[in-house]
Amino acid sequence: MNRYVGLVIMLVVTAFLLVGCNEQIGDYSAASSISESAVINSSIKNYSANDLRRVDLAAGIGYEDNIGTARNLLMEIMMAHPLVLDEPAPSVDVLELGASTVNLAVRPWARTADYAQVRSEMLEQIKVRFGEVGISMPYPSHDVYVHQAA
């Protein structure tokens, strides 16, 4: 008579996630950990799997600045950058009306391998060129009034 005392089938799944600097996050990382449920119950997007990647930037301009002028300058900056692709076409759209700024979504496309360089150089060029033409980049400020009792 064949008798099984017990049969256990176990599937062990280990997930290792690498971030931009190739620092491992997971089972063997002393600095960070991620739970299994976060991996199993979530969608993980592998941006490096695609040849092209959209660079999502935001540029804040003052409410007194002309949106059309800023949009044209941002398009000019993107079109002049040698690593920004013509197709898919870059775009500039109003993202939101913030407390201190009108925020514009600046969206060039680049090859995935060029993403970090395009992002960094675009941010620098936006700051420099806005300064050259007088487009303000306000930062949040608060007025404080001190009232003295008589």
Shape descriptor reads: flat
Side-by-side strand order of the widest sheet? 4-6-5
Distance between the termini: 102 Å
Task: Report helical residue fraction.
Answer: 25-40%
* CATH topology-level fold name of the domain at 49-133: Alpha-Beta Plaits
- What summary fits the major beta sheet? 3 strands, antiparallel
Order of helices and strands: EEHEEHEEEH
User: What fraction of the residues are assigned to beta strands by DSSP?
Assistant: 15-25%
The helix-and-strand class reads alpha+beta
| Model regions low in confidence, pLDDT < 50 over at least 5 residues | 21-31
Under the CATH scheme, the architecture of the domain at 49-133 is 2-Layer Sandwich
Task: Determine the mean pLDDT.
Answer: 83
CATH class of the domain at 49-133: Alpha Beta
Number of strands: 7
Detailed description of the structure:
This protein has a domain at 49-133: Alpha-Beta Plaits (2-Layer Sandwich), CATH 3.30.70. The model is unreliable at 21-31 (pLDDT under 50). Helix content is 25%, strand content 20%. It starts with 15 loop residues before the first strand and ends in a 17-residue tail after the last helix. It has helices spanning 36-40, 67-80, 115-133; strands at 16-18, 24-26, 52-54, 57-61, 91-97, 102-107, 109-111. The protein is of the alpha+beta class and 150 residues long.
